[in-house]
Design goal:
This is Microcin C transport system permease protein. It holds the Pfam family BPD_transp_1. InterPro entries: MetI-like, MetI-like_sf. Belongs to the binding-protein-dependent transport system permease family. By secondary structure, the protein is mainly alpha-helical. The chain folds into two domains: 83 residues, no CATH class; 230 residues, MetI-like (MetI-like fold, Orthogonal Bundle), CATH 1.10.3720. Helices cover 71% and strands 0% of the residues. The chain is built from 15 helices and no strands. The chain is globular. The termini are close together.
Length: 367
């Protein structure tokens, strides 16, 4: 077991290196960049995310000189009319005065020490930005993942045990709705009904805490925090429980029909003991294997839209804005952290197998 853990920990480094390397060079090859973004700001022009993605932005109109020459005097769009020394200073500011491979090696050196540098456009160290945004994303990711598992696993077991019953049919309707309706639509419905849309005003619409949270007692701060988290967490739970509930049901149905279950029943073992003593540990292996992906999805992808709608300034929103704004230090630091978390959680998931089913061994003889 120790050898397996050591091997998995060792494999984190080449895997992380490969992911960072591929994304670094892909991003460098994409149209636009921090130099173009700064040039656009100097020119007072706005560049949309769609334009950046398609590379079709026009940061400024061509000058008469450009039209006469028939070509631009600068490799950057919108740079004509800006003194060359200013362009050189911008390149030096963002390390674009160095070759791409040198920038890549410098990034690897800094990231190996968890030094993510300073944001290009936020005038803050990336570490400080992460510390500032992390509590929001942790709140959304942890609470939603825990609640989804607490709801989906018992629901999936109940559906499997009562397969074909009226309860199974009605709960399947709820699962289908939860799987088919986009998460942002649930958020809008909750806002309309419970956050001062057209009906009730029971919950706040934005933020993680109230403006006067510093004046509240300890219990008041906890209740205020939970009060603000009700609608965002409800949105993510409704939008995320369906697939896990069906996965749990199907896993239990496969095990219920297995030969060892028939044998156990023939021996007179009670249904409850069969379900939770034999079927549970076998069926839960599939559910547990999806935990890392589910947590990372809730932590980043799932929380992005929720953060936008409920004005929660977390890691998901910061990473998205960094990608659209070509803020490379923030973008690559976010990718680095989420990838590292995912790889670490995959090891935790494997270790959890042995807790659910002690017969599983990741030692050299077993694997």
């Amino acid at each position: 077991m120790k050898e397996y853990i050591a091997k998995r920990v060792f494999l984190i480094f080449p895997t992380l290196l490969g992911i960072i390397t591929i994304n670094f060079f892909l991003v460098q090859a994409a149209p636009g960049g921090p130099v173009e973004t700064m040039i656009a700001r100097l020119n007072g022009t706005e560049v949309s995310a769609v334009d950046r993605a398609t590379g079709s932005q026009e940061m400024s109109g061509p000058s008469d000189t450009d039209e006469a020459l028939g070509e631009s005097s600068s490799p950057y769009k919108g740079a004509d009319g800006i003194p060359p020394e200013v362009i050189k200073e911008i390149e030096r500011l963002y390390n674009f005065d160095k070759p791409i491979f040198t920038r890549y090696l410098l990034m690897l050196k800094d990231f190996s020490c968890f030094d993510f540098g300073e944001s290009f456009f936020r005038d803050k160290r990336v570490v400080d930005l992460i510390k500032e945004k992390l509590p929001v994303s942790i709140s959304l990711g942890v609470w939603s993942t825990v609640l989804i598992y607490l709801i989906s696993i018992p629901l999936g077991i109940a559906k499997a045990v009562r397969h074909g019953s009226r309860f199974d049919l009605w709960s399947s309707l709820a699962v289908i709705v939860g799987d088919a309706v986009p998460m942002f639509l649930f958020a809008i419905v909750l806002i309309i009904f419970f956050a001062g849309g057209n009906y009730l005003t029971l919950f706040p619409l934005r933020g993680l805490v109230s403006d006067n949270v510093a004046q509240l007692s300890t219990w008041g701060k906890i209740l205020d925090y939970l009060w603000h988290m009700v609608l965002p967490i409800t949105t993510m739970v409704i939008g995320g429980f369906a697939s896990l509930a069906m996965l749990t049901k199907n896993a239990f149905l496969d095990e219920i029909s297995a030969q060892y279950v028939t044998t156990a029943r023939a021996k007179g073992i009670t249904e409850k003991r069969i379900l939770y003593g034999h079927i549970f540990r076998n069926a839960m292996l599939i559910v547990i294997s999806g935990f890392p992906a589910a947590f990372i999805s809730m932590f980043f992808t799932g929380s992005l839209m929720t953060e936008v709608i409920f004005s929660l300034d977390g890691m998901g929103l910061m990473g998205f804005e960094a990608a659209m704004g070509r803020d490379y230090p923030v973008m690559f630091a976010t990718l680095y952290i989420f990838t590292l978390m995912g790889l670490a959680l995959s090891i935790v998931s494997d270790l959890t197998y042995t807790l659910v089913d002690p017969r599983i061994s990741f030692g050299s003889s077993g694997s």
